[in-house]
Amino acid sequence: MEKQVEKKIIRMFGTDLDGSLRVARSLMKIKGISFAFAQAVRRALNIPPDKKLQELSEEELKKVEECIKNPEKFGIPSFLYNRRKDRETGKDMHLVSGDLEIAKKLDIEFLKSIKCYRGIRHMYGFKLRGQRTKSRGASFFGRVGPIVGVSKKKAKKGGK
Question: What number does CATH give the domain 96-143?
Fold first, then answer.
């Protein structure tokens, strides 16, 4: 009799995934995969909603990875991708983990190089999306960490 070995931790796209979670919930732990995209992957591969990640075979896990790498091949609509009409290639892509971080960093560097409004705000570390900056996020040095407040000394007893 063949004994099925359950994997508690599954490595996918540089991320350790909890095998005891359902497939869609577990895929959401990968940076760049949203709830909607995880559900679309699950539906495209005809995986039941209550199936756990550790219950998938090696072949099914490879199909999941392939579906995340090439979602257009599996019929996932392009509005779920996180990078539509890429600036260099003009293609719709879905990036995950390290590739997503690199692409985001390159986009910010591009904005800085053309010196558009958003690029200048990035250069100085200011807020970009219309938030108020009167009291927060508008220091000369940009976004600064938590500042330790000044505490008053305790008053002496018995004095005027």
Answer: 4.10.910.10
